[in-house]
Design goal:
Layout lengths: L1 E5 L2 E2 L1 E5 L9 E6 L38 H4 E3 L2 H9 L5 E5 L7 H14 L4 E6 L7 H4 L4 E4 L10 H4 L2 H8 L4 E7 L5 H10 L7 E5 L4 H18 L2 E2 L3 H6 L6
Parallel strand pairs: 4-6, 6-7, 7-8, 8-9, 9-10, 10-11
Antiparallel strand pairs: 1-2, 1-5, 3-4
Helix pairs in contact: 2-3
The structure holds iron/sulfur cluster.
Length: 250
């Protein structure tokens, strides 16, 4: 399978969940490479912003920022090796993240099946952008879906980021919660439209400020919390940014 590479190794790390429903929970993150979207503010752009592509990114304005050489940022690793690494940790809360992990369902299904066979108490969270349906046989092994549909502010075309059949599926799935990345107050109407169209219940909704620095989050938090109060949505911060900034693998 293809994982993100960090310092010559697959990006698998023990930390606390920094966002959403499980915020604060000690978790083991497995970061897959590759994504089918190209969010302009993505903070894991090393999973998709390859040399030779034309996707814009906010980092383009940073001096010295260049796109990534694909061969240097992907760690190809057998599922059995990933299993061995995971089993080397005590942690039983596994977060499959990316990139977009749903692109590698076949391999992840094999991994999840093996994990549950090893120890049925493993709790597996799937982080997804909500554009791909899980296969039935894969869904069996997943305990929680952290679905993050992307808004206009992500700069992805609507037909790529909004897949009605997938959103209908997750809105009816009691294991799914929805996390929306909010950049400005103007994003609220889009969230309300999605919530109403797909009949997503307010307690399933998490609004999170967009930002990769504590200052950005602090500014947006002030008004975002008020919106959450008004609509009965949950507010989620980005705890890892407050603790570690944009450092990887922590
Ligand atoms: S869907 Fe997630 S990983 Fe993919 S580009 Fe957007 S933020 Fe990044």
């Amino acid at each position: 399978m293809k994982l993100a590479r960090l310092k010559g190794k697959p990006e698998i790390f023990y930390t606390i969940q920094g966002e959403g429903k499980s915020l604060g929970k000690p978790s083991l993150f497995v970061r897959t490479s590759l994504c089918n979207l190209h969010c302009i503010w993505c903070d894991t752009d090393y999973t998709w912003n390859w040399e030779g592509t034309s996707f814009p990114h906010v980092y383009d304005r940073d001096p010295g920022y260049t796109k990534y050489k694909k061969s240097e940022w992907i760690e190809e690793i057998p599922v059995s090796d990933v299993l061995e690494i995971i089993c080397g940790y005590e942690c039983k809360n596994i977060v499959l993240t990316g990139g977009e992990p749903m692109l590698q369902q076949k391999e992840l299904q094999e991994l999840c099946r093996a994990l549950k066979k090893t120890d049925s108490t493993y709790w597996i969270e799937m982080e997804t952008n909500g554009t791909l349906l899980p296969e039935k046989d894969f869904d069996l092994y997943l305990d929680q879906y952290n679905v993050s549909p992307k808004l206009k502010n992500s700069n992805n075309p609507e037909k790529l980021r909004i897949r009605p059949e997938v959103l209908h599926y997750f809105s009816k799935n009691p294991r799914a919660s929805f996390k929306f990345v909010i950049d400005s107050r103007a994003d609220l109407q889009e969230v309300l439209d999605i919530v109403n169209t797909y009949r997503i219940k307010a307690p399933q909704v998490y609004l999170m400020p967009q930002g990769t620095a504590a200052g950005q989050l602090a500014e947006k938090r002030v008004w975002l919390v008020e919106i959450c109060k008004q609509y009965g949505f949950n507010y989620t911060d980005r705890l890892h940014i407050h603790i570690w900034g944009s450092k990887r693998g922590v």
